[in-house]
Design a protein that fits this description.
- The protein has 540 residues and is α/β, with parallel strands linked by helices.
- The strands form six sheets. The protein has a five-stranded parallel sheet with strand order 8-2-1-12-19, covered by helices on one side. A four-stranded mixed sheet has the order 20-18-13-21, with helices on one face. Strands 14-17-16-15 form a four-stranded antiparallel sheet, with helices on one face.
Length: 540
Amino acid sequence: MESDFLVIGSGIAGLSFALRAAKHGSVIVLTKGNAIDSNTAWAQGGISAVLDPPLHSAGDNCETHVADTLDAGAGLCNEDVVRAIIEEGEETIEELVSLGVAFDKDPSDDTRFALGNEGGHSKRRVLHSKDTTGYAIASALIERAKEHPNITFLEHRFAIDLITTGKLGVVTEDRVLGAYVLDEQTGEVDIFRSNRIVLATGGCGKVYLYTTNPDSSTGDGLAMAWRAGATISNMEFVQFHPTCFYNPAARGAKARSFLVSEAVRGEGGILINENGEEFTLEHDLRGSLAPRDIVARAIDHEIKKTGASCVYLDVTHKPKGFMKERFPNIYKTLLNFGLDCEKEPIPVVPAAHYQCGGVNTDSNGRTTIRGLFAVGEVACTGLHGANRLASNSLLEGNVVARRALDAMMKSYPPSSPSPLSPKIPEWHTGDATRIDEQVLISHNWDEIRRLMWNYVSIVRTDNRLLRAAHRLRNLRKEVREFYWGFKVNSDILELRNLVTVAALVVDCAIRRKESRGIHYTLDYPERSEKFLKNTELRRF
């Protein structure tokens, strides 16, 4: 299949781009699984934006939002990128509302949006739709995309690898030509041809044993870009959300990865230990509302110091009915697990949440391969630096999607003549057979995730990182044998991508001999000006 634009991913980044690009040509949107299975749909808290008076908080402005973002990013944010994205916040909200997203209004004045607060923000500037903001955004965008005549929406399509002139051995400027894509329902591999490809595949949370991410977050776009030769930046910075619901008796993926939004702390929730003490104040004067890296390390320290299995998020001091009204999904889900959060504190632990690094891009999503753009969590634009400020991610996804299209239309619009492209060879499985022992894949998947959790999580050391690197080298060989020895399916492809991303996280972490933001190592506990730069890797 051929299209003017090929979008891989169905979250806010991919669909914001697709809806705008459809005005200029044909768009194909590919998504593995169902369209709603994206990180966007799982986002609870909201989207940060500074709005014109009288809609914004008193005293808030873009400069304050920029300052909060730079502070959270621990010196590694690109200030020009931060400013560019934040200044387009109001345009993002207007666009989302026009597409059918209903943000909550102020109960006392329905001409104003209700604005929440989250860790690291000095003002209330987070718009929300109860506690399912991401789902509200994703649902609206999917509906609009499926209605558009220029958009072909294909679900259950797993992008295997990008096709570039470099990979085909053409000695010219390396540019993208298309992608090999697995039809998960038929098992066939098809060629999707396009000179303009947007990676919007989300993050890699499933590389860790405990994560707030959906099962689809296996780093697919990042791994594809790496194999294609794109530059990767700052993968040592994996953010751990401080408050993932902890219930060892609960069963199922939903129970193990249920996020208790940071907005709960923004509305007065307090982190306490089993003795009822607000321990976070020992680590930062902002207490439970400090940036996520500080709060996650405080929880990790408290659990290790006391030997407890978890800490607690206490909202029992809030008025009766508050949680049910403001956070209905969280309240109902916890109640289904047998916990009434208005009567007893919520047991929580940190869990892998968001990658702040990714495919290296400029503020327009442009990668180091011509025609290939990356938008959203898969990309490293310079907005987040060494630690993401809460609720900046949905904003980034929409703004950079808009900027990416503008950049494409200026550099190589669909109306311009396409360069001569070499013939793309069909996909061949060779002598590969169907795998008959699924347990082999499951075992390696589990080993990768446990290894990353034990050696490369909130607190690191050189020894742990080197052990992880050594084991991952062996695992990559084993996974390579799976990939070449058996007919591809989604399980093999996800395993291949997971081990690639795990190795990138470890390799970047080994190179950063300091502690900064969410990369904390006991061997180098202080920041160093020597490492006031991005960690960049590229495959040659």
